[in-house]
C-alpha cells in the first residue's frame, strides 16, 4: 500500500522520527515493541527471519529496489517521499534506500535457548552498538548457537547494531539475562563451562581452552572500558586470554570475540588435531 507523503509532520510516520537521538530511541523502541531495519538487504533478512513489518519508508526513486517486497505485503503501508522530506523526518540522509519499522519478536525463554546450544556468547554491559553488531556478525559466521546479554547491555535490535551485523542479529537467537546471579545458575544447570575473556595472571590461553574441547562452552565478553565485573570473574569456571605480540595488551572486544569464536569452533579443533597427527 503506497502512501505518498505531503508533509514531514505526517503523524503516520512517527516511528521514524529522530532516528539519530540514541537515548530517545533506546527508551522508545523496546517500550513500543518496534525496531528499525535499515537498507533493502537488512529489511529482506528481517522478513526472511519471520519478523512482521509495521510499515515501510523510502524515497520515491528507491521504489523499484523493493517492489517485490511491497508486492508481497500489500496491506502494509509504504510511506514514500522526497529525500529532503525523509531526511527532515529521520534526521539522517536516507542513502541506503529504504527502511522498515518492524514488530519486535517475542522474547526467547533462556532455558529453551540453551537446551540445544553447545557454544554461546555472553555479553556483559557492552554499550557500544557497533561492537554489539560486529559480535553478532561474527557469532553467526563462526557457529555460535546463541547470545545472552546482560540487563545493561545495549540493544541488539538498535538500528546501528542491526546495520553493522548485516542482519545477523536475526540469525542468532538471543535473550536478555535477568538481574543477579541467576544467569550463571542457568548456564551451570544447562551444563555449560563458563570462560571469561580477561587478562589475569592465571588465565588460560585461548588455545588451551580450545584444546579442552568442552562439551558446552559459554564465552563471556565485557565492555571496552571496564571489562568484566569482579562478580563475573569470580563466578566463571575459567578466565581466558588471547596471546598478543608487539607489546599489544588486548584487542577490541568485537575483534576478540571473533578470535575466540573461531579458536573454540569444534571444526577448528578437529582440523588442528588432524594437522598435528600428520
Write down how many β-strands occur, each being a DSSP E stretch of 2 or more residues: 12
Q: Write the element-wise H/E pattern from the N-terminal end onward.
A: EHEHEHEHEHEHEHEHEEHEHEHH
CATH class of the largest domain: Alpha Beta
Number of helices: 12
Mean pLDDT: 89
CATH superfamily annotation of the largest domain: SPOUT methyltransferase, trefoil knot domain
Are there runs of 5+ residues with pLDDT below 50, and where? Answer: 271-278
Query: Any idea what the CATH architecture of the largest domain is?
Result: 3-Layer(aba) Sandwich
Task: Estimate the strand proportion.
Answer: 15-25%
Question: How many separate domains?
Answer: 2
CATH topology of the largest domain: Alpha/beta knot
User: Rg, please?
Assistant: 21 Å
Strand order of the largest sheet: 8-7-6-11-9-12-10
Helix content: 25-40%
Q: Summarize the biggest pleated sheet.
A: 7 strands, parallel
Q: What is the molecular shape?
A: elongated
Question: Structural class, judged by helices and strands?
Answer: alpha/beta
Cα distance spanning the termini: 63 Å
Question: How would you sum up this structure in a few lines?
Answer:
The protein has helices at 22-32, 40-48, 67-72, 83-90, 110-115, 129-141, 159-165, 182-189, 206-212, 230-235, 253-263, 266-277, and strands spanning 2-4, 34-38, 53-59, 78-81, 98-103, 119-124, 146-149, 174-176, 193-197, 204-205, 217-222, 238-241. With 278 residues, the protein is an alpha/beta fold.
Amino acid at each position: 500500500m503506497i502512501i505518498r507523503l505531503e508533509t514531514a509532520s505526517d503523524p503516520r510516520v512517527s516511528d521514524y522520527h529522530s532516528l539519530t537521538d540514541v537515548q530517545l530511541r533506546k527508551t522508545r523502541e523496546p517500550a513500543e515493541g518496534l525496531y528499525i531495519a535499515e537498507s533493502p538487504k537488512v529489511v529482506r533478512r528481517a522478513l526472511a527471519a519471520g519478523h512482521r513489518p509495521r510499515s515501510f519508508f523510502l524515497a520515491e526513486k528507491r521504489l523499484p529496489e523493493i517492489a517485490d517486497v511491497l508486492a508481497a505485503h500489500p496491506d502494509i503501508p509504504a510511506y514514500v517521499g522526497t529525500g529532503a522530506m525523509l531526511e527532515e523526518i529521520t534526521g539522517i540522509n536516507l542513502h541506503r534506500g529504504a527502511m522498515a519499522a518492524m514488530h519486535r519478536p517475542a522474547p526467547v525463554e533462556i532455558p529453551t535457548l540453551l537446551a540445544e546450544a553447545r557454544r554461546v556468547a555472553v555479553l556483559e554491559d557492552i554499550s557500544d552498538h557497533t561492537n554489539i553488531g560486529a559480535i553478532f556478525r561474527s557469532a553467526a559466521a563462526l557457529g555460535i548457537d546463541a547470545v545472552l546479554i546482560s540487563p545493561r547491555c545495549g540493544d541488539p535490535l538498535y538500528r546501528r547494531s542491526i546495520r553493522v551485523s548485516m542482519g545477523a542479529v536475526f540469525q542468532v537467537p538471543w535473550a536478555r539475562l535477568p538481574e543477579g546471579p541467576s544467569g550463571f545458575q542457568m548456564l551451570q544447570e544447562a551444563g555449560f563451562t563458563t570462560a571469561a575473556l580477561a587478562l589475569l595472571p592465571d588465565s588460560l590461553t585461548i588455545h588451551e581452552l580450545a584444546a579442552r574441547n568442552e562439551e558446552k562452552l559459554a564465552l563471556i565478553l565485557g565492555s571496552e572500558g571496564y571489562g568484566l565485573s569482579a562478580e563475573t570473574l569470580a563466578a566463571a569456571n575459567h578466565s581466558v586470554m588471547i596471546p598478543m605480540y608487539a607489546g599489544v595488551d588486548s584487542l577490541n572486544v568485537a575483534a576478540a570475540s571473533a578470535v575466540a569464536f573461531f579458536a573454540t569452533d569444534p571444526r577448528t579443533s578437529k582440523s588442528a588435531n588432524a594437522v598435528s597427527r600428520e
